[in-house]
Design brief:
heterodimer; A: about 260 residues; alpha/beta; Rossmann fold; B: mainly alpha; MetI-like fold; 2 strands; binds adenosine-5'-triphosphate; binds magnesium ion; phosphate transmembrane transporter activity (chain A); phosphate transport (chain A)
Chain lengths: ~260, ~475
């Protein structure tokens, strides 16, 4: 890990955006998330790292209640966004998901044109007053997703006809088009080349100015580059959570150290 | 020896071959199975298949060739001069010879001994065997009868010999080859491929045969009846005395009208039911409701027809047609269409349900994750993604509707007419095919042959719909893979 450029970051002591307390998730009898409590700050990038199957995606999906769509999944504990319990009965998950956007681990473009993929969210939420505004939103989102130059001449082509990496960026563009307050990104660069990865990381950095971003990644370098805070998950436990620089230089838990130096995972 | 006995003998030979081949392969490898190219059972199977396939081929060819050969011999025995070149008289003579041959077989007569006699003594010998021969029958007819029985006997014996020979030779060849180096597994693979090709060929050839036979009869019909009058005629009025008007249009109109009503009922109900089943219903509701819906598909159409005749027809007449002044017929397009629509609901719903379920969950997640509601997700993502399959199911339902007969007979009546009023009795192509064929008409009259032309029209219509359905499904399939 010596080659890693870990810069000291000024983490402004901003207020807590997401606050999770004693969260447990069960898939039927499988206990996937075990008593996780974490405070995620506003206007920061938080990285979730950990070995495959440790529950990163599961925890991420709790934050926008996507686990509701899985019949067997059961979530207990509290998750508060801006102080409001999102599992409260009065909260409308549909409203919540408009506020908490998500880029899924597996790219899932709709079988529609590239344009319609990106315009989907804005249309549903009525973000554009006319076609010109919608065009602007679509272009801006595609630019932020670092895919505009590749698709600007074929916005009518089906989104499913793109390559895996292009689909991934299309999904990023689709998610930012609805201007969410929180963006959950599940391995958004897993199929991207270094250049596209750098562009997406730039986007993440830009988003940080206004939003909070949670990113799951298997690349230690990426976590170190883009995030201010890092959480290390292992077997459903949140083992360690702290400033990224501290996690990568002086981890307190031996499991964290083994993982980031490549001994477990 | 009958064909059944030959088959059983062949199978027995193949079973013996299986064990011999297996044993020989194992022995040739010195008992060490690993030295063989394939597992021992493949050597056995190879011998069994090489025994069966050529022998079965010989049997099939023989069974086809034997009657032809016999007919040739019979024809030669009678000779062309007796009938004087008249084809009708010739076939009568052949029929006479055939009857006598049947008598010979039934009487178990010594055919060879009789055949050795002079022409003059033949009739007496027949009489001795207990077969009545009409006075003045030409001896060549008797010869022909003898030839038929004789050829059949010789032929079947030759067939047994040839089939046996083919089986034994095949078995021996395969047995010789059963050594460690022989790739028995690959040989069996090829044989399986052959069987699969044969099966599909049978299916295709049968279809082609059906179409061709319809086509020939249709051509016959169009020789006797002007094509323009058939395709563009607006009156359907067959008469036994001839001089009928056989216009297709009233029947086509009735078919389309009834099908349209049926689809207007079946498509929305079936589709919405499918969406409810796949997207909203819990597992318990699904477990009960889905089989219930599919029971509808299992009800015989004649039962639907009775329902139309006894319940729906009078109901529509008393509550709608008469109060609205639209006629007072219980049989109507509306009756048949409604009931047929109910029959088609499960077709649309169960196929659509399958394609909706096949839409990946990640697609729904993507939409829900953007803050769409469930119904928005269904309308804008799930249904468009499943659309090719849904359209396919609708077109399949449409071709069922076009081909349906029983519900129409009992629900819409048999009056061929073109009318816009849906409470009027009308009829369809299928109904008229039945009524033209069950009559006592001369088979070669246009009144009967028109059934084939109608059948072909129907076939072309459903074929076009099916091709369209396949094309749509293929064109838009796997957009979400
Ligand atoms: N839909 C599901 N049904 C049942 N069990 C599930 C389901 N999804 C995840 N799990 C289980 O929950 C645990 C955590 O899975 P999760 O997808 O959160 O892992 P992850 O950390 O995202 O792994 P990866 O890095 O490979 O994506 C795993 O043991 C997995 O088997
Ligand atoms: Mg994951």
């Amino acid at each position: 890990m010596n080659d890693m450029r870990i810069t000291e970051r000024a983490v402004d002591l901003s207020e807590t955006k997401i606050s999770a307390r004693n969260v447990q998730v069960f898939y039927g009898d499988t206990h996937a998330i075990k008593d996780v409590s974490v405070d995620i700050a506003d206007k920061t990038v938080t990285a979730f790292i950990g070995p495959s199957g440790c529950g990163k995606s599961t925890f991420l999906r709790c934050i926008n209640r996507m686990n509701d769509t899985i019949d067997t999944a059961r979530v207990t504990g509290d998750i508060l966004i801006d102080g409001e319990d999102i599992y409260d009965r009065r909260v409308d998950p549909v409203q919540l998901r408009a506020k908490v956007g998500m880029v899924f681990q597996k790219p899932n473009p709709f079988p529609k044109s590239i344009y319609d993929n990106v315009a989907y969210g804005p249309r549903i939420h009525g973000l554009a007053r006319n076609k010109v505004e919608l065009d602007e939103i679509v272009e801006r989102s595609l630019r932020r997703g670092a895919i505009w130059d590749e698709v600007k001449d074929r916005l009518d082509a089906p989104g499913t006809g793109l390559s895996g990496g292009q689909q991934q960026r299309l999904c990023i563009a689709r998610a930012v088009a609805t201007e969410p307050e929180i963006l959950l990104m599940d391995e958004p660069c897993s199929a991207l080349d270094p250049i596209a990865t750098a562009q997406v990381e730039e986007l993440i950095d830009e988003l940080r100015r206004n939003y909070s971003v949670v990113i799951v990644t298997h690349s230690m370098q990426q976590a170190a580059r883009v995030s201010q805070k890092t959480a290390f998950f292992h077997l459903g436990h949140l083992v360690e959570y702290g400033e990224t620089g501290q996690i990568f230089t002086t981890p307190r838990d031996p499991r964290t150290e083994s993982y980031i130096t490549g001994r477990i995972g | 020896m009958t064909t059944g006995t030959i088959l059983i003998a062949l199978l027995a030979l193949a079973v013996v071959g299986y064990f011999l081949g297996r044993g020989r392969a194992v022995a040739s490898a010195g008992g060490d199975v690993r030295r063989l190219h394939s597992l021992p059972r493949f050597y056995g199977l190879n011998v069994a298949l090489t025994t069966l396939i050529p022998a079965l081929a010989v049997l099939a060819v023989g069974l086809l060739a034997l009657p032809i050969w016999t007919d040739l011999r019979v024809g030669a025995a009678i000779g062309p001069s007796l009938a004087g070149g008249d084809a009708g008289r010739q076939s009568l003579l052949i029929a006479q010879a055939d009857r006598l041959a049947e008598g010979l077989e039934g009487a178990d007569a010594n055919v060879a001994a009789i055949a050795a006699l002079d022409d003059g003594a033949l009739a007496g010998a027949f009489a001795d065997a207990g077969i009545a021969v009409r006075e003045g029958t030409d001896p060549s007819i008797l010869r022909a009868a003898l030839a038929r029985v004789g050829t059949q006997e010789t032929g079947s014996w030759m067939l047994v010999l040839l089939v046996g020979l083919a089986g034994v030779v095949g078995a021996l060849v395969a047995l010789r080859a059963s050594g460690p180096a022989f790739r028995a597994r690959n040989a069996v693979e090829r044989a399986i491929l052959g069987v699969l090709i044969l099966a599909s060929t049978i299916a295709i050839v049968t279809t082609a045969g059906i179409v061709l036979s319809m086509l020939f009869e249709t051509i016959n019909f169009l020789r006797a009846y002007p094509a323009a009058d058939f395709f563009f005629g607006t009156v359907w009025n067959p008469r036994f005395s001839g001089d009928s008007q056989l216009g297709l249009l009233p029947l086509l109109w009735g078919t389309m009208y009834v099908s349209l009503v049926a689809l207007i009922v079946a498509v929305p109900v079936g589709l919405l039911a499918a969406i409810y089943m796949s997207e909203y219903a819990g597992p318990r509701v699904r477990a009960v409701a889905k089989p219930l819906l599919e029971i509808l598909a299992g009800i015989p159409t004649i039962v639907y027809g009775l329902f139309a005749l006894v319940t729906v027809g009078p109901l529509l007449r008393d509550w709608f047609a008469q109060p609205l002044g639209l006629g007072n017929s219980a049989s109507s397009v509306m009756t048949a269409g409604l009931v047929m629509g109910v029959m088609l609901i499960p077709f649309v719903s169960s196929l659509s349900d399958d394609v909706i379920n096949a839409v990946p969950q990640s697609m729904r997640d993507g939409s829900l994750g953007l803050g769409a509601t469930k119904s928005e997700t269904i309308r804008q993502v799930v249904v468009p993604a499943a659309l090719p399959g849904i359209v396919g199911s609708i077109l399949l339902a449409a071709s069922r509707a076009i081909g349906e007969t029983m519900i129409v007979v009992l629900g819409a009546g048999a009056a061929a007419q073109m009318d816009l009023n849906p409470f009027e009795a009308m009829t369809t192509i299928t109904v008229k095919i039945v009524s033209q064929l069950v009559g006592d008409n001369d088979f070669n009259s246009p009144e009967t042959l028109v059934a084939f032309a109608l059948g072909l029209t129907l076939f072309v219509m459903t074929l076009a719909l099916n091709v369209l359905a396949l094309w749509i499904v293929r064109r838009y399939r796997e957009q979400y893979e």
